Amino acid sequence: MLETQGTAAGVGLPVTPGKAPWLELSTFSDTQGSVAGVDEVGRGALFGPVVAAAVILPEHIWPELMAADIKDSKKLSSYRRIQLSQQIKALATDWKIGFASTAEIDQINILQATLLAMKRAVLKLKVQPALCLVDGNQLIKDLLVPQQTIVKGDERSLNIAAASIIAKVWRDDLVLRLASKYPMYNLERNKGYGSQQHLLALQQYGPSILHRKSFRPCRISVISE
């Protein structure tokens, strides 16, 4: 049987082979009140904010989303993510986006900025959740809502998987809109991550105001002509 870890320890639930695919159907099926899933995207990017989503799914739509083959956003095509994001937002009890800027990332570090983005997303919810399922193994600091961390939560929780999809689509759309302002970095293809072309552009042009200066690839000197 899958064992629930104490939230005070901040240790995430492990992924256990052979168990029910979604924890809402087993471990958290008796939770009284709404369950929110919280996930982030953009933690490893060199450009742009780190973005989090908090999503509350009503129980009656779980079968519909499972039939739609909802899963971790990284395992979906861009087209399928957009489709599912629209479906989730239309059916969710509530969903909200939170983010931390590049300046905040550089000031407090990427881990703390990620937790801050998650906290902001949860605090924006109009529906107060009875429990937050948080992807990873770090509790959100100073959040006055019960929470449970889940390692690889986007593969184990419907609510977290939904949050991962909404956050990914929202951040990708933001970066695509910014790409026209910074065409030299090929952002429309790399979404701010450190592709070879992106790294070469950083060497040639240096970082923009929206690059994370605390990240090593952005702390470089421009190649002189």
Plain-language structure description:
By secondary structure, the chain is α/β, with parallel strands linked by helices. The chain has 2 domains: 159 residues, Ribonuclease H-like superfamily/Ribonuclease H (Nucleotidyltransferase, domain 5, 2-Layer Sandwich), CATH 3.30.420.10; 36 residues, no CATH class. It has 7 helices and 5 strands. The protein has a 5-stranded mixed beta sheet with strand order 3-2-1-4-5. Strand 1 and strand 2 form a beta hairpin. Helix 2 crosses helix 5 and helix 3 crosses helix 4. The chain is globular.
Topology of this protein?
Blueprint: E1 35-41, E2 50-56, H1 62-67, H2 78-91, E3 94-100, H3 102-108, H4 110-124, E4 131-135, E5 147-150, H5 158-179, H6 187-190, H7 196-205
Parallel strand pairs: 1-4, 4-5
Antiparallel strand pairs: 1-2, 2-3
Order of helices and strands: EEHHEHHEEHHH
Average pLDDT score: 89
Number of domains: 2
Straight-line distance between termini: 63 Å
- State the low-pLDDT regions, or none: 1-11, 15-20
User: Which CATH class of the largest domain is shown?
Assistant: Alpha Beta
Task: Give the strand order, joined by hyphens, for the main sheet.
Answer: 3-2-1-4-5
SS elements, strand count: 5
CATH architecture name of the largest domain:
2-Layer Sandwich
Kindly report the CATH topology of the largest domain. Nucleotidyltransferase, domain 5
For the biggest sheet, the summary is: 5 strands, mixed
> What is the 3D shape?
globular
Class per helix and strand makeup: alpha/beta
Number of helices: 7
CATH superfamily of the largest domain: Ribonuclease H-like superfamily/Ribonuclease H
Over all CA atoms, what is the radius of gyration? 18 Å
User: Helicity, in percent?
Assistant: 25-40%
> Beta-strand percentage?
5-15%
